[in-house]
UniProtKB/TrEMBL annotation, chains A, B:
Classification via PROSITE patterns: HTH_ICLR (PS51077), ICLR_ED (PS51078)
Pfam family, one: HTH_IclR
Protein name per UniProt: Transcriptional regulator, IclR family
Coiled coil: none
Gene Ontology terms describing biological process: negative regulation of DNA-templated transcription
PANTHER family, sorted: HELIX-TURN-HELIX TRANSCRIPTIONAL REGULATOR, ICLR FAMILY, HTH-TYPE TRANSCRIPTIONAL REGULATOR RV1719
Phylogenetic classification of the source organism: Archaea, Methanobacteriati, Methanobacteriota, Stenosarchaea group, Halobacteria
Domain HTH iclR-type: 8-67
Domain IclR-ED, first and last residues per copy: 68-251
Length: 252, 252
DNA sequence: CTCTCCGTTCACCAGGGTCGAAAGAGATAA
DNA sequence: TTATCTCTTTCGACCCTGGTGAACGGAGAG
């Protein structure tokens, strides 16, 4: 904190511009300059650099992120062993249960979506690939936290705190530890509208040699999940799915 | 060509480093420096900048691309109307035919994969999202080219030429034009090992108001496609799939 | 027509990016 | 244990280069 290591201003400007383009879904130099309070010509040079290297596409003087980013993202995704093994299972879990499912890993202390599936195969999903959520407020995050070494949990809580996202979010370390203990015993974690109002989610960690490589989840509108028979069904399906994924690691 | 517009060296260095990390699948500062013939300390500062902004994850002094890229890629993917409408159909086409399927768009004169599906839902795919191929050598590319204005085709051929990828690749403009005319008449394009030895592929363009928004393809080992009954089956399935996608654009 | 806003270009100057050397930090071997 | 190697990380200084504002040409709008 005291003295940040040296960084390159020009690069950070470019990154800010990329993020602005992501947010705006494509824009011209002037618009980005206004958005970021930078000079028009500066932004123009940056856009030009990105474009010349194939990272942007230009149409009618408006720039937007090119599929080069899709390529990079896809490479990152496929670099996870968990993705190759988990994706088919998570897809099938979605069709089997008729609910939305996710494959999540921990990155930099946050739960990051590796893959999302939907019963209809549609792309209208709650959490899309690369999206990040605080771990203490999601079923997927808690499932992973429950099997992480205590020091890691300490670090993560220290870094990100326990911010409240809804009135149901766990906000004290004691309550969190209790919950994690329960999760370790039952093998399943729940998110009772703790991250998003009206969204319920259940999850189970993918454990290989005791390490949580990630977690799988099933989620849907809170009211559809209240039936306890239905819940048992979902938990069973989830448990079996995770079991299948874990077996794929045993038979490397 | 004569005078390239101004670009920013520092940013291009960072982009080169990102590409190196993509290629190497993660590396330390020294390795990247060696790879790119840059000074260790320069690379270190760049890595540090990317890391401080969340674009890299560090483990054991080795840096690799973070899921931030997955997020960006996912955003790009979802920015295509064709993705939202085409993905479920392409997925179903894969399970229906038992073959691998792709959803492709044109970007910067190259065929770019927007989505890839596999009968087994596995991730072992010929062409993965963001991957780019010359248009003249692929069924998907030719399907799009056939419905692009002639000037666009001229531009693309001027820019990229007609490089030979296998001994079956079309390498003359005359042969290409003939092929495109045939495709316009039949509505289906074929790739007879023109891009990859041993790989056969058939494709059909997604036309909305006469514009080729992209194309859908079915592909597999050349020898499995030789049966003409099987081919007719695949062509029918492909045609129907494309038809479904196009209808989704009509009923916006 | 004028006015405005855009993308794009240019030349100047100072801030900053690059580089080499050297200091920590581990690992391995003797 | 010490020596040696390699890697990451730090530091200072030089010179380059990235930022800037003004200006040009064009496209729309009124």
């Amino acid at each position: 904190m005291a003295s940040e290591p040296k960084t390159i201003g020009a690069v950070e400007r470019t990154l800010a511009i990329v993020q602005a383009l992501e947010r705006l879904g494509g824009a011209g130099a002037s618009e980005v300059a206004r958005e970021l309070s930078l000079s028009k010509s500066t932004v123009y040079t940056h856009l030009n650099t990105l474009h010349a290297n194939g990272y942007l596409v230009k149409s009618d003087g408006s720039y937007s992120l090119s599929c080069r980013f899709l390529r990079l993202g896809s490479t990152v995704q496929q670099s996870f062993d968990l993705y190759g093994r988990g994706k088919p299972v998570v897809d099938e879990l979605a069709t089997e249960t008729g609910e939305r499912t996710n494959l999540v890993v921990e990155e930099a202390g946050r739960g990051t979506c590796l893959h999302a599936a939907d019963a209809t195969g549609s792309t209208d999903i709650y959490m899309s690939p690369g999206e990040r959520w605080p771990m203490h407020a999601t079923a997927t995050g808690k499932a992973i936290l429950a099997h992480l070494p205590v020091e890691r949990v300490d670090d993560i809580v220290d870094e990100h705190g326990l911010p409240s996202l809804t009135e149901h979010t766990i906000t004290t370390r004691e309550a969190l530890d209790d919950e994690l203990e329960t999760i370790r015993q039952t093998g399943v974690s729940f998110d009772e509208q703790e991250a998003v109002e009206g969204l319920r989610c259940l999850s189970s960690p993918v454990l290989v040699d005791g390490n949580p490589l990630g977690s799988v989840s099933v989620s849907g509108p809170a009211r559809q999940f209240t039936d306890s028979d239905r819940e048992r069904e979902l938990v069973d399906a989830l448990r079996e799915a995770v079991n299948v994924v874990q077996l794929k690691f045993v038979f490397s």
